[in-house]
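Structural prep section.
Before we set up the soaks we want a predicted structure of the protein with iron/sulfur cluster in place, mainly to decide which crystallisation condition to try first. Input record follows.
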Amino acid sequence: MKIDDITKNTLDKLNAMPAEELIKWAFDNFGDRAAIGTSFQLTGTVIIDLASKHFRKFRVFTIDTLRLHQETYDAIKASEKKYGLAVERFTPDEGTLKRMVDRFGEYLFFTDKAKQEYCCFVRKVEPNKRALKTLDVWITGLRKDQSDYRKTVPKASLVEEDGRKILKLAPLAEWSMEKIWRYIKENNLPYNKLFDKGYDSIGCIICSTPLVKGGPPRSGRWRWFHEEDDKKECGIHTNTVRE
Ligand code: SF4
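Run finished without errors. Recording the tokens verbatim:
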């Protein structure tokens, strides 16, 4: 199948599919032009396991900002070992990163929102754009109950990336955290141990911290900024325009 073959009817059909069927459809129809993009949080863990029920080889990529927690690097290794995967790592462009750090320092994200967004662009968004150039179907771990911003996320949509259409999937969009935990425990999956230390949303060291008790899921992110927790995004999922 080609990306241009995807019609409104196809999207309707995909939006009605359960998670496992949707993941299978993606790899059956697009092969290596489909990939799971994950930061090795709990949803990524579940999606990889669901894919492994049908395929021995499938693409998984991650954005390594070079500032990830050791527990995240451990989770990547554990998944690679369990499923025999070679997770593709996309890292920041060396020259751009050096120029940013030389000019503003390693910890520029404390100063103001614009510099945090600049750092996220260099370390996350640009490497993610490079990853997206290699695929037609981007399988993500977005869920509706992660934040107000994400509550309308569809399971399947066409997005535009650098003038090109991509099919963006969120197979677990409707899964609750309870359902995800149940799946992980029942199937004895390896998971990022930061979730045992109070974290609920994981990104870079310093910028992601354990959850504020009783707070919204993304309240542990950039906690020195007094913006609404529900609107905190690094840009990976805001730069692609939904059709
Ligand atoms: S989360 Fe923090 S360190 Fe990571 S890319 Fe964004 S601002 Fe930079």
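Observations: The longest strand covers residues 156-161.
Flagged for discussion at group meeting.
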